[in-house]
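User: I'm preparing a small set of examples for a lab meeting where we compare how different chains pack in three dimensions. I only have the primary sequence for this one, and I'd like the structure in token form so I can line it up with the others. Please keep the answer compact; I'll paste it straight into my notes.
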Amino acid sequence: MASPQHDIDTEGQPNYEAGSPHDDESQETAVEDEQKPERHTSITCDNDQKTVASSTYASEKMSLFHECVFIATICTAQFTTQVGLTQTLGILHQIGDSFGVTNPGVLSWFIAGYSLTAGTFILVAGRIGDLFGYKKIFVIGMLWFAVWSMIAGLSVYSNEYLFVFARVLQGLGPAALLPNGLALLGVSYPPGPRKNMAFALFGACAPGGGVFGFLFSGLFELAWWPWTFWSFAIALVLLAGFSTLVIPAQCRSHDQDKGLREKLQMMDIPGAITGVAALVLFNFAWNQGPAYGWQQAYIYVCLILGVLFAVGFFFVESRWAKMPLVPFKVFTGDIIFVVACIACGWACFGIWVYYLSQFIEVLRGAPPLLLAAYFCPVAVSGAFASVATGFLLHHVRAAWVMTFSLTCFMVGTILVATAPVHRTYWAQVFVCMLVIPFGMDTSFPAATVIFSNAVKKEHQGMGAALIATVVNYSISLGLGFAGTIEVHVNNGGRTPADVLHGYRGAWYFGIGLTGLGIVLSLIFVAKGYWQDKKKRSFEGR
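Assistant: Understood. Below is the structure token output for the 541-residue chain.
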């Protein structure tokens, strides 16, 4: 549940934290960045190229009512993305029963497949939006989301393979919606409080969308579970049509006026193919292993091919591509730290939310609607965390905020990993519902600030997209790792005690990941203080 927000726009403009070792330089860079409304040096409006001016921002031409509706429409990108995740999670076993599927490894694919493509294609979809228009790709993404949601429901007449296939392709919708929704907000507002509020609202929709998915999947399951997806598809079609009316004609990047051949070159197609293939094959192997057994030869073939494609992607991006999707030359030690911390935290989150829902439904016997009620505090706590994070980033180093985020992920997971099956909800599960959102809603903005401090201005734009990719991909990959552990420690899941042992094995793995992330983030904190001391010593000479 990525929450790109809190004073950080799509151009990667950071809200620099107090006490940064780069305060003076950061403030100068922030001032320069405020003069740049998008990634490019010029924009075109009404087919006339102009320099950046306040009149180019679409928000200044909207009435208050239109502006509110516009922001609400863009926020549906975040909201529907989370609905797509939890609408299956809330009725996972009901869907599995209709297909005769009880294997936990296969059931996890119902979630992991969606997160896999949602994370894998964000960078590619963002680049396509840069070249062909944010509004156009936003609407196409909404319609694509609707089509494959409809097919996911229709799979009830086929088998689980069609359902998984539909879920995988369904994830391409959010991959298009998230970066282009953020870009639409970025080009519509000048830097300032109104823009910051728009991004805060965008991020705050994530917990509410998750709870909404749980709630309405539970309601529709009372009739027939496919209606969860069919009704969602109808809503997405209506939103797509509404978006074409509400989203104004945007000021466009100069790259959108280039010829098709030049656009294709700028898309970095070889990099996109090798990068996507590497991510998909590697993830497929780890999620397929628990489902069908690691003795299957094709799983190792996919794993090896994934590594080979990753090597090819590195070669293409570092040696051949003129406009690489991921310029590896910017990957300093700071960037590697932040990517590793984000991956650890969000992989743990994926494990937490998946196995907690199984714990509540399978071992406590709660129906889907009661499961939705259990998760309701996440929406309230998440909204509060969204506001609090803006304050934290103004007064605390981003590295400390990252440490705090990973600690919340760890504490929340420990609370459920140690909870007895029949202990009251209010003792541990309720508390973890309040704690986990602070991990979710502080990690993304902290990571983006650290990324912004570590790279030059020309690479700021890729920060939010890259981190969103890591967030969503880590959820899927973490489930694959955890599923492998679960099936190897649950003794076949023959008794409730065995099932609980498998769940706890997965949770303990998530706790270990957050422990690694905390160690890395503390190293990063120490590095910042060491740089401060070194800078003061140099200035004192």
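A couple of notes for your slides: The first strand starts at residue 43 and ends at 45. The radius of gyration is 23 Å.

User: Perfect, thanks.
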